[in-house]
Amino acid sequence: MTSQPTPNRQPITRLPLIGSMIDEMLQDAQEQYKNLEKLD
Questions:
Q1: CA 24, CA 30: separation in Å to the nearest integer?
Q2: Single pTM value for the model
Q3: What is the predicted pLDDT for the residue at 3?
Q4: What is the three-class DSSP state of 11?
Q5: pLDDT of 1-40, one tens digit each?
Q6: How far is 19 from 33, CA to CA, in rounded Å?
Q7: How far, in Å, are 8, 11, 25, 27 from residue 16 at the CA level?
Q8: CA angle 31, 36, 39 (to 5 degrees)
Q9: Do 3 and 11 meet the contact criterion of CB atoms below 8 Å apart?
Q10: What digits encode the pLDDT tens for the residues 25-36?
């Protein structure tokens, strides 16, 4: 049997921080996508 990993729970007060981290990752991914499009 495979055991599932235990979730890493965060308090609701950390939501703005987590949201900004997701926004930064999205911006980085979009920038990288634009750079890859230039290669074609």
A1: 10
A2: 0.66
A3: 87
A4: coil
A5: 678 999 999 899 999 999 999 999 999 999 999 999 998 7
A6: 21
A7: 17, 11, 14, 16
A8: 140
A9: no
A10: 999 999 999 999
Q: CA 14 to CA 22: how far, in whole Å?
A: 13
Task: Check if the beta carbon of residue 10 is closer than 8 Å to that of residue 2.
Answer: no
pLDDT number for residue 1: 61
Q: Which residue has the tokens 């007060």?
A: 13
What does the chain come to in residues?
40
Hey, what are 38's tokens? 């230039």
- Using the structure block, give the residue that is written with the tokens 């900004």: 20
- Which helix (H) or strand (E) segment holds residue 22: the answer is helix 15-38
Residue 39 identity (one-letter amino acid): L
